[in-house]
Amino acid sequence: MVKHDFTILKCLLLIWTGSFFSSKAHGQQDAQFTQYMYNGGYFNPAFAGKEAGYRFSALHRSQWLSYSGTNGPAPITQLVSASGSIDKLKLGVGLNLVNDNIGPTTNQEVNLSVGYHKKLRRGVLSLGVMGGVFATTIRFDELDFVNPDPNLPDTGSETQMNFNFGAGAIYDRTKYYIGISSRHLNEPGFDFGEGSLENQLKNHTYILAGYRIKTFAQWNFEPSVLLKTVSFDNFSYDISVIATYNQKVSGGLAFRGEESVSLLMGYSILKDKSLRIGYAFDLVVGGIEAKAPTSHEFMLSYVLPDVTRQFQRTIQRTPRFRF
User: Fold this and answer.
1) Which residue has the higher pLDDT, 121 or 13?
2) I need a labelling partner for 170 at 20 to 30 A (CA). Which of 154, 181, 223, 281 fits?
3) Which CATH number fits domain 3-304: 3.40.50.410, 3.20.20.140, 2.40.160.40, 3.40.50.970?
4) Smallest Cα–Cα separation from 128: which of 82, 153, 92, 88?
């Protein structure tokens, strides 16, 4: 890495560090995915339109399968995303829909992302913003309080919605990339049961970095790491290594700090390799007393290449003319 690359990476980090400090510790509120390397648009809006063509994906995650606790069943998450590039404007657009069921609560998101992509020295700098709606539903009959609050209803449910914003940046030098992003910049608040149960969606900051290694015999390797923090008080990380053969078959290993080890697999099932299925298996190794031992994640993605029409003059022959 040459000197000017350090300057670019330093600038990306400094963009966010000034405004994300809090005196309280907070746990992870966002959904988590083992196949994070294929769903960068959820964490960082700068991924919108970063790759050519139109991309669609759907993911289902069953976390801690067969878990049963006092506050509802195991977490289940769905993510649907789409993105496309507008090459003439150097822009991209993306859409993410999330449904995250966690015990007695359900969180749902709809976010629209816009990314701007510009060549910078030997790489591409991408900047993105996103905005949308975050909705939370609480089912009061599934809550199990140690000290019940008389102001909270015993049955029924309540849903509240608020606006949600985020921003991100990525610098990609083909062989390596690094991105930083923040979700819930406005930290929307929710208060249930006439204000008796308050919850604020805290700012989540992510740093995603990876390195692409091309080798002989059509094998490619990509180690990557995803660092996560909530208001710079709560930190966690995911690290993985993915091997891909002929852009068709992939497999890898991942580790989520103090939580699980994972096996990832993927396969492209069409001749043009545009349709891909992926699977991730998590084996819980941390906090197993309060969790079920396995999690499972299924993903289906499709890439629609850019369609360009080229009108070419062809030779037409008639009895009298040739043109």
Assistant:
1) 121
2) 281
3) 2.40.160.40
4) 92
